Automatic annotation (TrEMBL):
UniProt record similarity statement: Belongs to the NAD(P)-dependent epimerase/dehydratase family. dTDP-glucose dehydratase subfamily.
Reactions it catalyzes: dTDP-alpha-D-glucose = dTDP-4-dehydro-6-deoxy-alpha-D-glucose + H2O
Chain ranges of the NAD(P)-binding domain: 4-319
UniProt-listed InterPro entries: dTDP_Gluc_deHydtase, NAD(P)-bd_dom, NAD(P)-bd_dom_sf
Annotated protein name in UniProt: dTDP-glucose 4,6-dehydratase
GO molecular function, one term: dTDP-glucose 4,6-dehydratase activity
Amino acid sequence: MKLLITGGSGFIGSTLVLTALARGHEVVNLDALTYAANPNSLNAVRDNPAYRFEHADIRDSGALTRIFAEHQPDAVMHLAAESHVDRSIDGPQVFVDTNVGGTARLLQAATDYFKGLDAGRTARFRFHHVSTDEVYGSLGATGRFTETSHYRPNSPYAASKAAADMMVRAWHATYALPTLISNCSNNYGPRQFPEKLIPVVILSALKGAPIPVYGRGANVRDWLHVEDHADALLTILERGRIGEVYNVGGDAECSNLELVRLLCAELDRQHPRSGASSDQITFVTDRPGHDFRYAIDAAKLHGELGWSPRFTLADGLAQTVGWYLEHADWCQQCLARTDGENPLGRLGLG
Ligand code: NAD
């Protein structure tokens, strides 16, 4: 298939591009290259004839129409988004513009293109919207989110993704666009921008700086390795039922404090001279509206499509720590893309 992947220069997108190419798909990567992208993440495939890059913004309808006409994709996998909850609290408008407005424009361009396809290609076409479990809000100590859980988003980021999910649903019901939605738990792995928890912990620990943990570190997340997420996304695209929602999770719940301790222990194992230690943990004022716990019930994806994750949390964290230890240059490139605003500085890490 020829896949139009939006946000392919970001964290999950770059893993998806690499995985899709390895599986024999052709890929067109549409990305605006915001601060969150690192074009070097895809250096390995830059000259691959099955890979094309389009520097474009999903808020630009004209560009979207041209890209659909020029590349004639068989499917869209939509990942482009503003993705950082803390930034959405500081400045929500761009989250609404990109995640809601941009998704609406992309849906419309896809629908116009879809209507012009011949019968054979119409039957194959899919629009896969990649979303988050944060749309469901927060859980208490028990229970897990299923595909029928109520939407109760608590951050501007989660609300913008929830609105986008609703529009995808509406475009399916109203215009018969063949859509798929997946809602996934927290991802980790190589090439995650160093403003998200796991790379922040690794880089802070290596610098000998305080390791910031919100509140008392009791918030619980369900972690999934990004390569398992990419595998799930392609499985859903290839075999998912049109109009359906699939939850994706790793069955790997962990409190933030436990996670930070695991990372420090792994750093110490792989790089004993780094001096990284749990003693560096510093509790910082909790995020407003901070969801207590997320947990995903992925039974539908397991049962219907036979998908399951390959990484255990221990193996995945070991691989991730190893990657960051070997890619200090990649981290520096990311930090250089933030207009002098060092995301570690945002967290009081200097
Ligand atoms: P990311 O911030 O690393 O990457 C986002 C990419 O989108 C960047 O390459 C950026 O340049 C691009 N982009 C942003 N605005 C754009 C625009 N207007 N036009 C075109 N491109 C634009 O994000 P990520 O962590 O890789 O997340 C990808 C998707 O997966 C997002 O939709 C996110 O909501 C969803 N998701 C993420 C997680 C997670 O744990 N990271 C979990 C579940 C779902």
